[in-house]
Description:
Blueprint: H1 3-8, E1 11-14, E2 22-25, E3 29-36, E4 39-48, H2 52-60, H3 65-68, E5 72-76, E6 86-89, E7 97-99, E8 102-107, E9 111-117, E10 125-134, E11 140-149, H4 153-180
Antiparallel strand pairs: 1-2, 2-3, 3-4, 4-11, 5-6, 6-7, 8-9, 9-10, 10-11
Amino acid sequence: MGAKSAERIYEINIIPPLAGNVRMENKQGFMQYNKYKGSGELYSQIEICASPEKIWIILTDFEKYPQWNPFITRIQGMLREGSVLDVHLQPPGGKGMNMKPVLLTAKPFLELRWKGRFIFWGLLDGEHVFEIKDQGNGTCLFVQHEYFSGLLLWLMEKMLMKNTCRGFNKMNEALKARLEQQ
């Protein structure tokens, strides 16, 4: 499936209209932006035909991100809780940015989580989470979500719902393709 067709398979439904929640679905998974008072969550999931161990190996092999990941194009740093990572994000249709999040959780085969900020804490903070949920049938649900908060969130929400959401989609599908082609 080409890059253009992958983006077209998503339909946007606003649920409910006044809540500010946006959901995009396709055959393989869905993405949703949930708006809460003073914070937001971008949530995505995709089903992958691979074991948790295989997904974890690809997800944590930071050196190979430039080869397959169109959204998070670089991660440098130690896979150790408390370490500072050097991450480059390249959202589709958006400007790339470097960030230095702190690795909060590295539970093999289950979860990878970091927290970063834009310029300083409280301006725009994000806690990025990757979860691997074994479905017991040779497939896993790969969940990628991020919790956002801070003074600039209200200004950045449209960009997050569009460009960052598309970035999550591209990464999820690239991870799925990499694993299912092995």
